[in-house]
Amino acid sequence: MARIEFLYLDRHEVERLLPDVSVAMEIVEQGLVAHGRGDVVLPPKAHIHLDERYNGHFNVLPGYAGHIDRAGVKVVGDYVDNWKHGLPSEVALLSLYEPRTGVPLCLLDATATTWLRTGAVTGIGVDHLARKDAAILAHLGARGTAFSNIAAIAARRPLAEVRIASARSETREALARKVEDELSLRAFPVASAHAAADGADIVVEATRLERPEVLVRDAVLKPGSLLVTYGWVMAVDPANATACDKLVVDDWEQCTKGGTFHPLIRDRVLTRDSVWGEIGEICCGDKPGRMNESERITFWHRGFAISDVVLGHWIHERALQEGAGQRLLLWDGPDE
After folding, report:
1. Contact criterion met (CB below 8 Å) for 45 and 254
2. Neighbour order of strands in the sheet with 136-140
3. Quick check: pTM over 0.85?
């Protein structure tokens, strides 16, 4: 008789088990290194587009990480108006699998892990691509991933000032208070993206626009600055993609399917030859990151399943060690 059980971890359990931001960055960077070395299987994301009906959509992220021998699939809803219902804009589930048999191992809430792994990738990008003395951060957007971005960057750079811009004043003000209370950083809510980005050393564009709108003009990005962008709809000056000194992505194939600069790829303005490299190539040492203090660098990361799988695997292993979560029976029957 074959019996298949898997572990279920709800949001409270996952949040209790989460690593701190520095450990999360180490875990996620191992996944980026595996990607840089080709030790992953990463199909393109799939999407269920419901934006015209419900102002939201689902992203489906499958992947396999060879260095930990784990497969996984994350399904995450991205709904702009969820705040009206008291819900985060992103709600996610991650399932992990034994790749030799296809047996499910764990089902866990991936909302907080999505925020943490996104922040970790942003922080890793800053580690390799920002000036060492970068001190002024502009963060555009105040939804779920925002605090994780700021915390990860603060773990790698001596921030003196954080400027926060978002569409709703209450969200940027709340995030500024949280940054000051939990990270002990000076944080200022500002009314416009331009005011935030002007003169900043690092600009993070994490907006969720419903239609394209240039919030960050290329001319406002000073020499030596780093722009990190990962919104689905273009919110930065399209000129930046070819005007910056280096364009770094997380996965070029994913970028050809959608996201910030995808219209430029569609129109053949931006090609693979325009890209300095993928962040995994930099993490594993195949390519250098920042090479001088005056380079203007742009890091476009769309997010991919490998980061979800490696972080989810770490949480699953910790849950097993602590006896956390709930065992659920999937199947109990004869072998076929």
Report:
1. yes
2. 187-190, 161-165, 136-140, 202-205, 226-229, 297-300, 246-249, 277-278
3. yes
| 205 bridge partner residues | 140, 229
Spatial separation of the C-alpha atoms in residues 190 and 257, rounded to whole Å: 33
Q: Cα–Cα distance between 336 and 326 in angstroms, integer?
A: 27
What's the CA gap between 150 and 39, in Å, rounded? 29
DSSP lists the bridge partners of residue 326 as 8
**How far is Cα 176 from Cα 164, in angstroms, rounded to an integer?**
7
Amino acid (1-letter code) at residue 97: Y
First-to-final CA distance of the chain: 10
Total residue count of the chain as it appears in this document: 336
**Side chain identity at residue 100, one-letter code:** R
Q: Which two tokens stand for residue 170?
A: 């209450």
Residue 13 and residue 28: Cα distance in Å, rounded? 20
In angstroms, how far is CA 249 from the centroid of its own chain?
Answer: 12
Query: What is the block-wise mean pLDDT of the chain (336 residues), using blocks of 10 residues?
Result: 89 96 97 98 91 89 98 92 84 96 97 95 98 98 91 96 94 96 97 94 90 90 96 88 96 90 93 96 98 97 94 98 95 72
Q: At what angle do helices 169-183 and 145-154 cross, to 10 degrees?
A: 40
In SS3 terms, 86-117 reads as CCCCEEEEEEEECCCCCCEEEEEECHHHHHHH
What are the residues facing 187 on neighbouring strands?
Answer: 162
Pairing of strands 104-109, 187-190: unpaired
Q: d(Cα 225, Cα 290) in Å, to the nearest integer? A: 11
Tokens representing 108 are 């866990």
